[in-house]
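User: My advisor, Dr. K., asked me to get a structural model of this assembly before our group meeting. I'm new to this, so sorry if the format is off. These are the inputs:
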Amino acid sequence: MRQTDEAGKKLDHLPDSLPQFMKEVNNRLGESPDIVWREIALGSAPAVILYMDGLGDPIDLLEAIHQDWLFFEGEGEQTPGDRYRVLKERTITMGKVGEAATFSDMMEKLLSGNSILFVDGVGSVLYAGTESLKQRGVEEATSQSVVRGPREGFTEALRENTALVRRRIQNPNLRLEQRKIGEQTNTQVAIMYIEGLCHVDVLEELRRRMDAIELDSVLESNYIEEMIQDQKYSPFPTVYNSERPDVVASALLEGRIAIFVDGTPFVLIVPALFAQFFQSSEDYYQRGDFSSLLRLLRYLCFGIALLTPSFYIGITTFHQEMLPTNLLTSLIGQREGVPFPAFVEALIMEITFEILREAGIRLPKSIGQSVSIVGTLVIGQAAVEAGLVSAGMVIVVSITAIANFALPAFNVGISARMLRFVMMGIAASFGLYGMIIGLIILGLHLSSLESMGVPYMSTFAPFSWRGQKDALLRLSQRTKKKYLRKLKS
Amino acid sequence: MIGKRILVIIMLVSVTITSGCWSRKELNELAVVMALGIDTHEDGYAVSAQVLNASETGAKQNSSSMGSLPVITYTSVGKTIPDALQRMLSMAPRALYLSHLRVLIFGEELARQGVGNTMDFISRNHELRRDFFLLVAKGGRASDILEVITPFEYIPANSLFSSILISQKRWAATGKITLQMFITELKRDGSDPVLSGVQLRGSVQQGRNVENVKKIQPDTMIQHAGLAVFKRDRLVGWLDESRSKGVNYILNRVVTTVGDIECAGGGVAAYEIHRADSTTHAHLNEKGEPEFRLEMEIEANLSAVECAMKLDSPDVITDLEKRIEDRFNTNIAKHIRYVQSEYGADVFGFGEALHRQHPKVWKKYRDNWDERFRTVQIQVNANVAIRRIGSIVQPINEEVDEP
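Assistant: The format is fine. Below is the predicted structure of the whole assembly, which you can bring to the meeting.
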């Protein structure tokens, strides 16, 4: 549409006559077979109902026109304009009805599933919300499953998703702003926040960044995520995502902002802080003491997933004196006959594991099972028996992998996975000394990150006592509210 | 800007890659020395190193196992200890790694000549940790001890290490003396060091053979043999079991041990000590000469009563406590006198106590303390409390009153 802006502008107003209209529409949509024309007569005036097959279903509109015919029965001749107005104001029974005066406006409505009524000689069209796209129903969320808590997950339909959140927060202050992003795809993107809870600066910043987005297409929320994140080159995610309405609702109540993108069940949440990636919605559905312990466990898991292989490499190639003697005798016996240095050994195992993992995700579910069995055998028994790797290394790699899966947010797990290899390289060349330097650099990087202008490590650095009630631990439900708002003010 | 960034990244990466992993050593490039033995030799020192045979260790025997023994002892001679260790590489396939040393054994001959010079290497070498124990091979050479195959613990050095730990804790007649402790006492003016002794029970020839450990009662075993008394860095003599215990009591190194006492009406009762504290008080007599009083606080439990006593009566217990106190007072005093007259080595640290409590007086004695120590008066004052008498009250053999 927009490439022909120059020519388009002149012709953007709708023509009066039906043949001209039909010609112009066909011109613009290229006579697609999925455009359905239903020619009718409205009194004496010829008219046409236009809709996209599959996106919309005009049965209700046709019903209304039938009503309209009954309405004017025996009232003599009316002008097409009158009938058009009566249709719009009285007889159309659908909630969503409107008028479009330009072609571009009309096209937008048509392509999102509305039915268009053109009446010869009126000069504008009626559209009615007849969307009837076949959609996946609300199903159980697969990515962040819980033992206790709501099972609903978002679907691909934007409106349904916003409704799922509204159902949880029945509050007039819940605001929704909608815009279209994507030159080609014209994807609906919505911002949701609670007026009064969410921090104004953050909201302004987000609006500014959303307005600055220049994208051809938006097919998933990550398209938006990459455009609005604070730092492009960081292994850590600064935007949270979830496919659970309860997670989004709780984030909104904490003063965060949710970004819905049509066509994906994954909703973005900003600002996202480091601590947030270690929290699960279930923390609030279980007793606080238990949840607190689980949170500590997750931080431990992050440490394990990040550092175990490098620690093992560092200790066994540089600092053997730090091992307890009995452990050394045991490890030394295992390593006997292994041809590679510990670093190469670890690299082989880690890469093997990453391959298996990637294969497991992509394979059809039925084959996935057998891959994991073969993989376990390859990683475990066979590699050790063949003398390629030591048994200790298998344990190290396994615990690393399991710890990685224990993280509640998938994207922070990816950070640990990437940095693990970096740490391994450092440990192989500089030992524990290098690892400490690496961790210091990591700490500096984390403290320098921001998410929508909020420090990433918030509640740890800058430190706040109030924030500690829901950071490392989850102490009580009440203290959870509004802490983000207090963070900056 | 971007060029600069790339340059920094390239530099950082090359630091990582080109450094060549300085001081990197893989586990299977190490010969872990578990025990070192140092003996005299006409050309300097004879050093024996008990080295871990890696392919024979580990929870599961791996395929490279040849059924050989878990340790190998290399012996070589050198002018200095590093020299001898280096010459070991003519036989050993891997670099010797000293950090996991568990025990260091001196031959008796070397100990009598003085261990000061060997101590320099041991404390100077950065690889050595400080948690290994020092021992003296009583009446023999250290290399003999390191050649014996031990039952139970498959690495002999570990066997020695853990037996010192447990015997010190439960028996109190050995000493777990680490490098740090030995050097502190060696260099301090008012004290002399002791070391624990080991000896072979049985012959070396049999002990070398693996058949030795295939018997229920092995012919040759390594046995602890009391404490070795040092004067400065020279071994001057040995203490038997009860004297060694005495020294450990005074040095506050007794955790638990067992003793016995004759009952009033004949027979014997055994007690188990579970707390023993001793403090040395230095004071000056009317002539201005130092005298010492040793206060001992001992808590004991009765563990066996083989005499006729009515243990339900508090008087009997008090009487028993009194008898044990007397026993302690005479015995400990006797042991101290023995060390004073026989060796003149202040292994108890009385000089150090004087130094701390009367620093000015100490200055007068510091240079001739060795002489003064032989004649100094020491009084022992034990205070024993019996806490528990066990699960039964009356002795099994106590005559029951017939109804």
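One thing worth pointing out at the meeting: Chain A touches chain B at residues 316-318, 320-321, 325-326, 328-338, 341-342, 387, 391, 425-426, 428-431 (CB under 8 Å).

User: Perfect, thanks a lot.
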